[in-house]
């Protein structure tokens, strides 16, 4: 899979290239700012863009805006944002359109190479990868709606679902069996008033409701 | 013969004061002819309306000129700077603005000085000058008595008895002159500063304005400095640490064949690098989070609350963003309060509310911890000071056993 990297720190860029290559990606271009990134995406049409949120010249949210631009121009491109701090507002901007093929991770997660590669791969395959800190912030903000009806364990499961994990991944993270996870998920759906139609579809709806993106 | 320094100084000063007083007579009497003309013309023609309006116009036009003359006189002759009132805000000359100008106390105080006080001061000045003249004449009574025609001098009965008395009185007057001249000059300087310069209320107002501006500048400078440090850390140190952690992670992932002790060393270094990143993140956040600048208080606080190890219920109710300085202080107060709740109060949960009531931003942080927070401690005093820097009100309620509530009310009129 072909990837481009936008990161203004050269040191970190080198590290990111190595990590992605280790994960089986082919880094076809690298950029130091949003303009360079958009040009590289237009030229190379990669499957994945790995983008730092803060880049020159303003060092604020250039990466987020560039990511949204990429999603608008080439909707098929998977986008992973890297941030020093996870701010759910930035993530919400990105997620308000579409949650598939989107990731938002803390930079320091890159250090846990295997986990990071797995998350990036998930996004490249059309999934979602949200940093647990984003999920914590989202959870915090929406404590008055139907989510309040969930038990703490169910909230945990929903949080991990929102991070983009599969049932197997959730079971591993919570150290429970996969069937237990499936049972929790089946309890979550009625509590969020989601009709019994199609399990996978409801899973996305639950996450969307959780993220508050369904209202956008 | 050498003149003692003290005496010389007194003589020079008296010369200066007397010259200053002499120069004051004419400008102080300048408006008297206007009065005299008005009185005489009114008496002759009976048309008081005309004379009063003409003399009023003359006084209004003459007052600024006389004020300028007096300023020069004070500055050049006795080195006193009569303070200038602050220039009024530039305003188009309309009838309304002219009426406002006339209604303000400043022109009337000046006109009062020139019109009413001036002649009185001129009288005082003339009497001091008379003292000087009489004193000088008396002291040299013997000298000029010789100039009288012989017949008169010899026929004057008092020639022998009165001349010494003249001399004595002259000496007394000359001795009193420095004191009198000094007293009158000082009184004039004080009156001029009071009446020609800005009033006390105006001076205080100007000072308050100055202080408000300089304080705002200072707060902004401190804020800018904080942002600069945040950026330096973010763009330099943090990136290097992340890069180090990534490389250590890569080393572990790509070299599973290393001996176990080497792997352990790398694993420990990896862990420490990650911890250092987390610590630095917290530190930088405490300084001035970038998201506060970009997205405002609500976004920054949700991040803060999510990172706090206890459950935090957050309510932010703001119609629009408030001034950056206010945002910064509010964030700082909440950040410190949550840190205290976590570290010292042993709290299980916390609640943060931020809402705007009119032109006041009200911040409230409550935790269910042990309480007993010391309002005089360094942390809380620092918060009170930062709130105080914006003229805000800071209050801590923390009975032993809890709960602790910290409130801050920050004025946020734009």
From TrEMBL, chain A:
InterPro entries: CheY-like_superfamily, NreC/VraR/RcsB-like_REC, Sig_transdc_resp-reg_C-effctor, Sig_transdc_resp-reg_receiver, Tscrpt_reg_LuxR_C, WalR-like. Pfam families: GerE, Response_reg. Residues 2-122 form the Response regulatory domain. It comes from Kitasatospora terrestris. Residues 143-214 form the HTH luxR-type domain. The modification 4-aspartylphosphate is found at residue 52. PROSITE patterns: HTH_LUXR_2 (PS50043), RESPONSE_REGULATORY (PS50110). Keywords: DNA-binding, Phosphoprotein, Transcription, Transcription regulation. This is Response regulator transcription factor.
UniProtKB/TrEMBL annotation, chain B:
Its EC number is 2.7.13.3. It is an enzyme of class 2 (transferase). Gene3D superfamilies: 1.20.5.1930, Histidine kinase-like ATPase, C-terminal domain. InterPro entries: HATPase_C_sf (IPR036890), HATPase_dom (IPR003594), Put_sensor_dom (IPR025828), Sensor_HK_TwoCompSys (IPR050482), Sig_transdc_His_kin_sub3_dim/P (IPR011712). The chain crosses the membrane at residues 20-40, 46-69, 115-143, 163-181. The keyword ATP-binding applies. One of its GO terms (molecular function) is kinase activity. SMART domains: HATPase_c. Keywords: ATP-binding, Kinase, Membrane, Nucleotide-binding, Phosphoprotein, Transferase, Transmembrane, Transmembrane helix, Two-component regulatory system. It catalyses: ATP + protein L-histidine = ADP + protein N-phospho-L-histidine. Pfam families: HATPase_c, HisKA_3, Sensor. This is histidine kinase. It comes from Kitasatospora terrestris.
């Amino acid at each position: 899979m072909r990837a481009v990297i936008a990161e203004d720190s050269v040191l970190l860029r080198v590290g990111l290239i190595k990590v992605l290559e280790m994960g089986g990606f082919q880094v076809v271009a690298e950029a130091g700012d949003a303009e360079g990134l958009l040009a590289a995406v237009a030229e190379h049409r990669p499957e994945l863009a790995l983008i730092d949120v803060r880049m020159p010249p303003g060092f604020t949210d250039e990466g987020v805006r560039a990511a949204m631009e990429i999603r608008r121009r080439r909707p098929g491109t998977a986008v992973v944002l890297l941030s020093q701090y996870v701010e759910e507002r930035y993530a919400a901007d990105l997620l308000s359109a579409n949650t598939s093929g989107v990731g938002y991770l803390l930079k320091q997660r890159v250090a846990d190479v295997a986990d990071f590669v797995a998350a990036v791969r998930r996004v490249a395959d059309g999934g979602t990868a949200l940093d647990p800190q984003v999920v914590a912030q989202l959870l915090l903000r929406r404590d008055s709606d139907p989510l309040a009806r969930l038990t703490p364990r169910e909230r945990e499961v929903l949080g991990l679902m929102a991070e983009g994990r599969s049932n197997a991944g959730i079971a591993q993270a919570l150290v429970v069996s996969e069937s237990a996870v499936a049972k929790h998920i089946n309890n979550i759906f009625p509590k969020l008033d989601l009709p019994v139609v199609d399990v996978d579809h409801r899973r996305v709806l639950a996450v969307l409701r959780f993220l508050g993106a369904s209202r956008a | 013969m050498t003149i003692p320094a003290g005496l010389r100084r007194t003589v020079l000063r008296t010369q200066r004061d007397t010259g200053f007083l002499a120069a004051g007579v004419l400008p102080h009497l300048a408006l008297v002819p206007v009065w005299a003309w008005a009185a005489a013309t009114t008496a002759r023609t009976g048309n008081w309306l005309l004379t009063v309006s003409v003399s009023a116009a003359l006084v209004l036009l003459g007052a600024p000129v006389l004020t300028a003359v007096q300023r020069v006189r004070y500055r050049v002759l006795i080195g006193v700077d009569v303070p200038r009132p602050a220039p009024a805000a530039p305003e188009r000359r309309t009838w309304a603005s002219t009426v406002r100008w006339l209604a303000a106390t400043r022109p009337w105080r000046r006109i009062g000085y020139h019109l009413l006080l001036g002649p009185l001061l001129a009288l005082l000045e003339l009497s001091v000058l008379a003292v000087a003249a009489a004193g000088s004449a008396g002291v040299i009574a013997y000298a000029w008595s010789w100039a009288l025609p012989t017949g008169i001098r010899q026929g004057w009965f008092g020639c022998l008895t009165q001349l010494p008395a003249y001399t004595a009185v002259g000496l007394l007057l000359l001795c009193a002159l420095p004191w009198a001249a000094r007293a009158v000059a000082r009184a004039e300087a004080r009156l001029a500063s009071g009446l020609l310069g800005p009033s006390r209320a105006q001076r205080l107002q100007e000072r308050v304005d100055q202080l408000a501006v300089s304080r705002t500048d200072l707060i902004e400078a401190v804020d800018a400095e904080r942002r600069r440090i945040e950026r330096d850390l973010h763009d330099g140190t943090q990136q290097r640490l992340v890069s180090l952690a990534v490389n250590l992670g890569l080393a572990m992932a790509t070299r599973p064949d290393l001996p176990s002790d080497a792997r352990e060393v790398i694993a420990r270094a990896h862990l420490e690098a990650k911890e250092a990143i987390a610590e630095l993140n917290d530190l930088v956040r405490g300084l001035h989070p970038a998201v506060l600048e970009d997205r405002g208080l609500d976004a920054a606080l949700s991040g803060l609350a999510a990172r706090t190890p206890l459950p935090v219920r957050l309510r932010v109710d703001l119609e629009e963003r408030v001034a950056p300085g206010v945002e910064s202080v509010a964030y700082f107060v909440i950040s410190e309060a949550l840190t205290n709740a976590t570290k010292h109060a042993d709290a299980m949960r916390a609640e943060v509310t931020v809402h705007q009531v009119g032109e006041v931003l009200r911040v409230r942080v409550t935790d269910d911890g042990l309480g007993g927070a010391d309002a005089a401690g360094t942390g809380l005093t620092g918060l009170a000071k930062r709130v105080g820097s914006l003229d805000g009100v800071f209050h801590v309620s923390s009975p032993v056993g809890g709960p602790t509530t910290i409130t801050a009310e920050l004025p946020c009129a734009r």
